[in-house]
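Quick note —
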Amino acid sequence: MAINFEVPDNVQQQMAMVQMVAEHVMRPISRDIDENEHARPWPFIEQMWPFMRDMQKRNLEKLLSNGDSTPKREGPGVTNLRLMMMVEMLSWGDAGIYLCLPGGQLGGAAIEAVGTPEQKSRFLNRFAEGDKPSWGAMAMTEPGAGSDTSAIQATAVRDEATGEWILNGEKIFCTNGKLALDESDGLVVVWASIDKGAGRAGMRPFIVEAGTPGVKVTKVEIKHGIRASDTAAIVFDNARIPADNILGSPEVEQRNGGSSKGFKGAMATFDATRPLVAASALGIGRASLEFLKDKLAENGVEIPYGRSYHKLTAIQRDVIDMEMNLRAAYLLTLRAISMLDHKEQNSLEASMAKAKAGKVVTQIGQRTVELLGPAGYSREHLAEKWMRDSKINDIYEGTGQINTLIVARRILGYSSSELR
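Predicted structure written out below.
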């Protein structure tokens, strides 16, 4: 598949608006929001809400026009390319504030992937037609279950009398969990087992709406980075979930460790969202690198790109290496995004992009602070904040190690039981 590097005119025009928001709305409040963790960035939210609502409305119309539950996307080079560029630019502005974007987010992506047309219309419409911002989130990680989803202990048991599902368990590290549950139209997609003896085949995601009795946010994490975004712990205590709020079939198709179609379909949401995590890493990396080059130039250090590598100084080589690796991560991300827009399977490419970008941005953030010395470590500048913000991209939606393992399995042809 050939990649078209030309950005459509309409996308360029939209990105000009996004750049203005990143530069004039996000950057000016970046330090203050970081110093006051969990203070919601309302100027940014209110600025972006009409844009996000319109974008989600167009996307929902396309999803529903297909008439089935298979996620379809706009034509090649438009929908996901636009989203990738927007995420990169907003993360250049501030990664934590970017994560406060109103909309379905990861929870909405799961509904897109395996929801029925009725579920898509009912739940995604609130992000496309609502009169005020609302959020979606996903709750998968538990105190004893991180990357190994088969260790999930949360359970959902059907009440045969009412048809409802009774959900019990605890979830942690839920991005925007509090935002989603605080707003009346918010929702969280929660993973639970309907048959613990069936392993992954017994896992199902459930749509839990804000205001559901028995659902309580018990903790909001104090974090190293992305401090504008809330990361919540949520307890489900006999929470009753309507029968039709389950994503996928309530029947367990396979046993003995197999994976159901519903599980595989919902997990496929990461094929769409991991490249966006990579795009966020790219934005943070670009912010760090631009600042570093500006500071070096102020001190008379230029980067002579045409000079032989062995004639460069150590600092010049470092900067060129950082730019090279950031560019490589960009191309991997563009590849994964382009495959989405061409409706091609991209599990391998999504994990490659996410693993590479997470590693690269972490290295760039740390090296930028090191090269700037006291100025990089000082809170007078944002370099130390970008270093803190960068690391999360190597952790969430599958750690760098897990995504590297996925890449190895895909390339070598091993199953998850054969290569762990």
